[in-house]
Amino acid sequence: MEETISLQDIFYTLKKRIGLITVTTIAAIIIAAIISFFMITPMYQATTQILVNQQNTPSQQVTTSEIQTNLQLINTYSEIIKSPAILDIVIAELDLDLTASQLSSKIAVSNANNSQIVSVSVQDANHAVATDIVNTVSDVFKEEVIDLMKVDNVNILSPAVHVENPAPVSPNKTLNMAIAAVLGLMIGVGIAFLLEYLDTTVKTEKDIEDLLDLPVIGLVSPISEKDAEKKSSRRKR
C-alpha cells in the first residue's frame, strides 16, 4: 500500500519532537558562538585610496581621452600592486616574515566603475600591521610605477590611519550564529522525521489499520490493578 504523509502528520511529528529540534538548534548556536568568539582569530582591515590621474600644469586641461587612458591603466596597476616587484620591496622595508605570495593573499585591490580611484586593502590579525603594510604598499607603488610604466600619474588620496579600538572585519559573529541556527533547525527537523520513519512500533488503532489494511472492530481497555482487585473482591462475595 502506498504511504502518504499529510500536513497533520508533519505537524504531529514536529510537535512530538519539538524538544529534540530545540536542543539541536540551541546546540548549533552555542557551537558557532564558541568557534566565533574563542577559536577564530579576528582579522582587521586597513584601506588606502590611490588616485590615478595625469599631473597637469595650470595651462593644461584634462581631456576625455586621458581619463579613458587612466581607467584602462587601472587594471594593469591592480596587477602591479600585488606583484613581487612591489611586494618584495615592502617585505624588505617592513622586515616581514612573509613571502610575496603570502603577502599578496592579504591584499585586495578594487575600484568603482568608471572611477579613477583605486582602493587597496590589507587584512591582518594586527590592525597596526595592516595599516603599515597598506601604506607602505601604496608608497612603494607610487615610486616604482614611474620606472615600471614610465608615467607619473599616481597620487595617494587617502592613506590608512591607526585606530585605537578597531572593529574586526571577520569573523561576523552574528551572521555565523544565525547560519548555525538555521542549520541546527534543519538538522533537528531531519533527525525528527528520520526517527519517526525508523519507529515501526504500533501505538494506535490507526497504526494497526495501516499495517493490516483491516478495520478495527473493537478495543480492549486496560484494567488497573486497583480495579482488578475490586472486581475480584466482588466475585468472592
Concise summary:
It contains 9 helices and 4 strands.
User: Low-confidence parts lasting 5 or more residues at pLDDT below 50?
Assistant: none
Summarize the main sheet.
4 strands, antiparallel
Number of strands: 4
Radius of gyration: 35 Å
Structural class: alpha+beta
| Residue-averaged pLDDT | 84
CATH topology of the largest domain: Alpha-Beta Plaits
Q: Specify the CATH architecture of the largest domain.
A: 2-Layer Sandwich
The CATH class name of the largest domain reads Alpha Beta
What would you call the shape? elongated
Strand content: 5-15%
Measured between the Cα atoms of the first and last residue, the distance is 53 Å
Fraction of helical residues: 55-70%
The total count of helices amounts to 9
Spatial strand arrangement across the major sheet: 2-3-1-4
Provide the number of structural domains: 2
SSE order, one letter for each helix or strand: HHEHHHEEHEHHH
Transmembrane segments: 20-40, 177-198
Family: Belongs to the CpsC/CapA family.
Membrane topology: Multi-pass membrane protein
Protein name: Capsular biosynthesis protein
